[in-house]
Design a protein that fits this description.
The complex is a heterodimer of chains A (240) and B (84). Chain A is an all-alpha fold and 240 residues long. Chain A is built from eight helices and no strands. Chain B has four helices and no strands. The chains are: A mainly alpha (240), B mainly alpha (84). At the A-B interface, helix 7 and helix 8 of A face helix 1, helix 2, helix 3 and helix 4 of B.
Chain lengths: 240, 84
């Protein structure tokens, strides 16, 4: 399939930086210039600049920009509070809300021609998932000490040989399912859009898929955050 | 209409990942068992750990289904349904 036109890659190529022609580069500089890396930075810069522009002067009576952010941040705060308790929310709210904003923007940006979703690369989603997975074990060990192991031993001592492998497998399956679901959905969206654009772009064939793409992007960002919150809450509460 | 679509998004969020989690658990069980067979015991125990791993993987898949039913989001939905 023809390589899509990515304007950041074009700009970097004009600047003389090496752009990898395959999915991954060989040298360190090529790895830094991979499209999903450059678009990750783009999303980061976008979020910082938009936040700075809309929230530079916070007022008692909010304007348009502040209202928007208050609605989003307030909604997320209430949602986390309901699902994992105030103590954990106070501690982890910055991390999870950053994940939510980053994933939502990164998913949606792929719908604009000339951009790609950084989340359509398994490297990005696996990195996000590893952070979540390690953090939820860290929360568990911090809350219960060594007693956290009881989470993996099932309800009755006799059933330990049966329950331990099952619990371990289902715990590692979280790592796999969380990363591959986000990656698969977004990559499918990107690939489908690319193919339809190539086949019948002049007849607006990608439009219905773009409409679905908005839904998929938001739902997948929500699923990721919801599961993160659920995992954090589960490892914080007592073993059954 | 707005209520319906938010409800659909919530349902997709809570239950849209059932299939994937189930399959991932089975494949991890199968892969772990096959790894034990081929690399840890050098093929001496050849089919057995694969089958045991597959069984544990299927068990883990069902366990993750029960876990999804026990999440707080599913619980609150259930209670909301009862009060209506």
């Amino acid at each position: 399939m023809e390589h899509p036109i990515l304007f950041i890659s074009l700009i970097l190529e004009k600047l003389g930086l090496p752009i990898p022609h395959g999915p991954i580069g060989n040298t360190f500089l090529e790895k830094l210039c991979e499209p999903y890396m450059t678009y990750t930075w783009f999303v980061m810069i976008f979020l910082v600049v938009v936040g700075k522009l809309t929230l530079s002067n916070i007022e008692m009576i909010p304007g348009k920009g502040q209202n928007f952010w208050e609605m989003i941040i307030g909604g997320m705060y209430d949602f986390f509070n309901d699902n994992m308790g105030t103590e954990l929310t106070e501690k982890l709210f910055p991390m999870i809300s950053t994940f939510a904003l980053y994933i939502a923007v990164a998913n949606l940006i792929g719908l604009i021609p000339g951009f790609m979703s950084p989340t359509s690369s398994i490297n990005t989603t696996l990195a996000l998932t590893l952070i979540v997975w390690i953090t939820h074990h860290a929360i568990g060990f911090r809350a219960h000490g060594m007693g956290y192991i009881k989470h993996f031993l099932g309800p009755i001592p006799i059933l330990i040989p049966l329950m331990l492998p099952i619990e371990l497998i289902s715990n590692i399956a979280r790592l796999l399912s969380l990363s591959i679901r986000l990656f698969g959905n977004i990559m499918a969206k990107e690939t489908l859009l690319g193919i339809l654009f190539m086949l019948a772009g002049a007849y607006f064939a990608p439009l219905p898929i773009m409409l679905l793409g908005v839904l998929v992007s938001l739902v997948q960002a929500m699923v990721f955050v919801l599961l993160t919150v659920v995992y954090f809450g589960q490892s914080n509460e007592h073993a059954h | 209409m707005a209520k319906l679509s938010t409800e659909m998004v919530h349902l997709l969020g809570n239950y849209g990942h059932i299939g994937f989690t189930f399959v991932a658990a089975i494949f991890i069980g199968l892969g772990g068992g096959s790894y034990l067979d081929e690399h840890f015991f050098d093929g001496r125990t050849s089919p057995w750990f694969t089958f045991i791993g597959l069984a544990f993987g299927i068990g883990a898949g069902f366990k993750s289904l029960f876990d999804i039913l026990k999440t707080p989001a599913a619980k609150s939905e259930d209670e909301g349904g009862k009060s209506n």
